[in-house]
Amino acid sequence: xxxxxxxxxxxxxxxxxxxxxxxxxxxxxxxxxxxxxxxxxxxxxxxxxxxxxxxxxxxxxxxxxxxxxxxxxxxxxxxxxxxxxxxxxxxxxxxxxxxxxxxxxxxxxxxxxxxxxxxxxxxxxxxxxxxxxxxxxxxxxxxxxxxxxxxxxxxxxxxxxxxxxxxxxxxxxxxxxxxxxxxxxxxxxxxxxxxxxxxxxxxx
Length: 204
Known about the structure:
The chain is mostly helical.
């Protein structure tokens, strides 16, 4: 069983890498300008999730989150050179950061359980994706469908690669499988109704 989970974890990492290849290419061409603050917050959230999964013997179920930390951190650092060009909603960023750091500190002093922390982080991530959903509604081709598909695959593989099944190990990949699958269906439905193919996303 461990051998199968190892392979599934490796495939999950490959899916995360493949998901980010278009972004890396677009970054090199100057067509992708990541926001430093946003990506660093995502990196922090993914790091917390990965640590909790590993601490609860999730094993290779954490592979997607671990590699995501690497990519998010890289895009965040690369985004520093675009910081002056990008308008930043400081209140939103501080609210997002506070919604991550405060529950984390409460968990460290045993004011919250790890499961409760994961639930709060899921809410924060869900709120963070709302603007993207609104953008998809306005322009169904504005987001890369392949990116969502590979993200969905990576989380599904991570879910199957989990060693010890518990809320702390299953919740994150499961909730992201549901979110990504929902986004994919939403995009496909909107695109099927679009009278004319709009300009595709840079990362498609």
